[in-house]
Amino acid sequence: MAEKRDYYEVLGVDKNADDAALKSAYRKLAKKYHPDVNPGDKDAEAKFKEATEAYGVLSDPDKRRQYDQFGHAAFENGGAGAGGFGGFDFSGSDFSDIFSDLFGGMFGGGASRRSANSPMRGANLRARVNITFEEAVFGCEKELDIAFKDECTTCHGTGAKPGTSPVTCTRCKGEGQIMYTQQSVFGMVRNVQTCPECGGTGKVIKDKCPDCRGTGYKSSRKKIQVSVPAGIDNGQSIRIRDKGEPGVNGGPRGDLLVEVNVGRHPIFQRQDMNIFSTAPLTYAQAALGGELRINTVDGDVMYTVKPGTQTDTQIRLRGKGVPSLRNKNVRGDHYVTLVVQVPTGLNEEAKEALRRFDEACGNRPADKSAKNTDAGDGKSEKKKKSFMDKLKGTFED
Hints:
Blueprint (H helix, E strand, L loop, with lengths): L6 H5 L7 H15 L8 H17 L2 H10 L25 H8 L21 E7 L1 H6 L1 E12 L15 E2 L8 E8 L2 E8 L8 E2 L12 E12 L8 E4 L15 E7 L6 E3 L2 E8 L1 H6 L1 E7 L2 E7 L7 E5 L16 E7 L7 H13 L12 H4 L1 H19 L1
Parallel strand pairs: 1-9, 11-15
Antiparallel strand pairs: 2-7, 3-6, 4-5, 8-9, 10-11, 12-13, 14-15
């Protein structure tokens, strides 16, 4: 299988490109390679899909952040963005205004050219789960309480009152779409719009089911188990297949996308797969070295500090970081910054010990007697008195 190209390269934009630049780049590629403009051209179709996939990711802030951090790996093997068109979910991206501007509404604001009675996949649901820092590192199981739609047992999903059936829409004659032609840059093109009368179903319910009120479904609260994978980061999402909105005309259900909110930790900070923290070091430990107890996500570990360690020295604990989403057996590292603590509130015995230590290091304190040299110097005192006597004599004369 050919290796995927970088999405920024596909669109021909810089990695710092804003939304307007992304949209403009995709607009040009869509106009050039769209299948309706290049009928039967497989190469153009492949390039259009590639550009659509790239824009679908980069135009979504969450997906773009995941892609910038993990690359294509963020959406592989059922990752946070896997699923949907070309292996991606573009439910958060809006292509309709681009297509409408380019082709004069020939795509009906994004509506697909399909039979009104063809199966259609249901919409995705979104939810959020809160977890701790440790749960994000090692993974966990969570339970969500969500509103889940099931087929109405009274009308069996038809939406019509028992004993009645939906009738064919008279406006679109059961097609679900209204078509007309319009002049565009490509000449006369066919425009397709969803029928406003039947909403694209091709059927109209005159007598609605009293239990579901014509929707064909009833909502109820259900418990959903969520398996949070080890190594997940704040803001990433977990996809649970077939737990979204029901499909139409027998189509499959959508998916449930669960966004993960990771709580802050009082000690640890995370960057990608690495963990960072600080550890206090006493003056004696820094000078003499010795064993130091350090907190990690795996529990306390003992580390041997070298003699003469300076404050802000950073050490690395290999394999004590966050597991990779792709392989939980591969972990990052834990970086610890050692901070030497200056003692406060010393008693006299401790102060004297520090003075002796300072002297032993060659840093002798100033001689106390030197402070009073002038006071004990007879010559200085004599000079001061002689000066005062002379001054006094001057005023007396």
